[in-house]
Prior knowledge:
This protein is of the alpha+beta class.
Amino acid sequence: MPLLRGLELPLAGILLVITLCLESIVHVLRKSTSRIPGPWYTMWTDVVLRYNMFYGRRGQYVHKLHAKYGPVVRIGPNQVDMTDMQAYKTIYSTREVFLKSPWYKVLTGNVVDAMFTTSDPHHHRRIRRLLSAPLSEAALASSHALCRKKAELAVQRMRDESREKGAADVYKWWMFMTTDIIGELTFGRSFDMLAKSERDQYAIDVEGIGRTSVFYTTFTPLHRLLRHLPIPVVQRAYRTSRNLASYADEAVARYKSLAAEEDPGKPHNDNDDEDDNDNDNHPKLFEKVFTAEKQGAISATEIRDNAQSYIVAGSDTTAVTLTYLVWSVCRAPPHVRSALLAEMAAWGDDPSAEDLKGKGARYLNCVVDETLRLYGAAQTGLPRLVPPGGAVLAGYGLDAGTTVEAQAYSLHRDGRVFGDPETFDPGRWEGASREMREQLVPFGGGTRACIGLHLAKMELRLGTFLFFRTFPDAEVAAPDDEMNMETFFVLSPKAGRCLIRVH
């Protein structure tokens, strides 16, 4: 046509763009996630999820979506979060059909391939076999004395700081305690954080791992390009990653040095005032790993990567939950503390590990469970991939490769299961229903459940006993908003501290 002469090429370009847009729309609408309830924008982008992730509000954001859209909600073009427990049991089954997504490698900047991050079930089982036995409840019984000594020193440091400054930062001291414990149990020698009594670069790096990991997960796949830009948050993330790798190398080297000595099993004392009569028979968590290295069954790089994971997972996670436990009991109605103190009075000054988990410690364990419900360290989703062939979850058919998760933040605040879910109420666990027990999942589930859960519970029980036995009248010394939760992959208080006045 004469009117269109000379416009054929521009028109062809416009038609091509329209065609590609229509194909893209059709592709999105055909995806199984298009039938999942959720905000319209999540069909096209997860930028809002990433925004909330970066600012430590991921858990709260997804929870609000559940409140509006129900137990199954789309949070990204190919990502779904669920609060349906049958779906949870399927996703996190012991059969490990739903494999970990590549997100776990991204979490560490794609530099760590450890038991925690690997998506290969065979690699995971191989490493877990080497690490699981020393972390069993029975094996850890011999570590009770060591953990108690570290907890006693932490409480002593809290008293000293409170006398000097008017309040103690319990988050700092619990972090130092758990870091020293995991160092000594894993590598045979403490990191000496309680002895140094100050936040050095190591402590800063461990505490900052949440913000570091969220940088990688938010800016995937651009973070490798961003590393060259002189932006403080970017450079801090890469510096922290490098430092953590160095700490792991140093810890492994220390272990090997101790192993070469005449008496390598003797724990290192980090306090000159401590006596030398510790139980030296506590398990070395990496002993089988180092034996496997000598036999050529594991590489030095694998050891370093798993050591790095242990350093982080064994310190910040339990420390932050123990911090919120102390803060919550101090803020709770008086009957909560009264019940806890009355129960502890019957144990004497030196309860055993069995005493702290037995029937005589019923209320203590209610306090621990309630804290894990509201303030377990891993609040956000643990993503898995729908296997080949697809799957039906909570009544929805999902394509293979869809990312599915069930975040603890929402499962633990499900009003259908937990009455008045935002209230800290340890008493709810005294007559807990089977449904409540099943939906308390602070350590994950299936074969990928946290390997250190028994150690974490030992530290939580001991820390609670020693703190409130020593400071029965402890009180909060800072505004509540300092403890607003930042839900990075590992929970942290907004202010990075928790001030408690002790006497």
